[in-house]
Amino acid sequence: MPELPEVEALKDFLTENLVGHELVRVLPVAISVLKTYDPPLTAVEGREVIAVHRHGKFLDLETDGGPHFVTHLARAGWLHWKDRLPDGPPRPGKGPLALRVALETGAGFDLTEAGTQKRLAVYVVADPQEVPGIARLGPDPLAEDFDGASFAALLKDERRQLKGALRDQSLLAGVGNAYSDEILHAARMSPFKLAASLTPEETESLYRALRTTLTEAVERSRGVAAGRLKAEKKSGLRVHGRTGDPCPVCGDTIREVSFSDSSLQYCPTCQTGGRPLADRRLSRLLK
């Protein structure tokens, strides 16, 4: 799933390639992708893009005098830029193409979604706050005014485990499964430590890990073409998706805990005092 760093890079890429250009046609291929109907999708056609914004994991194309075109790429969605779109309208079928956006230059982009769980979403709204997922977002962890005190206030009465708290978009916008693993590894904390149990020193350490991990990921992604962002993300991850590999910090074997629809990775030496966490599918967790 694209998370804050990749969506930020897509925002920068689209700012460079879309702002000042007209959205000539917006062609839905999978009707399920459309989550709003008033104003209609055609309301953005013939309008110039004047800005591109990021709200957590949402991309927002603002048009001149018109509505916002907002998309969330979900778990398996992606944006593919094309300097020259194919001639003729796209044909509905069983492929991954969900929607195509064409500019007056002949360039544009496709939104695609792999797999059978169709969660990619497109909204056309007068105000981005009309999108429920945006309206409930917590603060952006890279915002200039999001300091250590702000982070401590969020966690003060948080009774959940750190892994779940960091992924909650209503608590903190933009962090998902991959970067929560990376942040907790950088902070040397167990994913199952209770957020409210952190000492002030631990909270400050987690805040620094949060900001540093995301800032470095954004910098790695900056200037990378949209089509290469997935590979860039994977190459920069130190523990997530690397079960069985040696930890780049201490050399211990990276372990995994699996859930029904996801998994997390961690280093026992760096994060849990050398104790492996039991896989939740088989037995209860070791705290």
Describe the structure.
By secondary structure, the chain is α+β, with helices and mostly antiparallel strands. 27% of the residues lie in helices and 21% in strands. The protein contains 8 helices and 10 strands. It has helices spanning 4-18, 132-135, 148-155, 162-167, 177-187, 200-221, 229-236, 268-271, and strands at residues 22-28, 47-55, 58-63, 68-72, 77-82, 97-103, 108-113, 121-125, 255-258, 263-266. Helix 5 (177-187) packs across helix 6 (200-221). It is elongated.
Fill in the keyword field for this structure.
single chain, alpha+beta, two-stranded antiparallel ribbon, 8 helices, 10 strands, elongated
Strand order of the largest sheet: 5-7-6-1-2-3-4-8
The low-pLDDT segments are 282-287
Number of distinct helices: 8
Given the C-alpha coordinates, what overall shape results? elongated
Average pLDDT works out at: 93
Sheet bearing the most strands, described? 8 strands, antiparallel
Question: Can you count the beta strands?
Answer: 10
Going by helix content, strand content and strand pairing, the class is alpha+beta
Radius of gyration: 20 Å
What is the subunit organization of this protein? single chain
The separation of the N and C termini measures: 28 Å
Question: Which sequence of SSEs, written as H and E, runs from N to C?
Answer: HEEEEEEEEHHHHHHEEH
Measured as a percent range, the helix fraction is 25-40%
Portion in strands: 15-25%
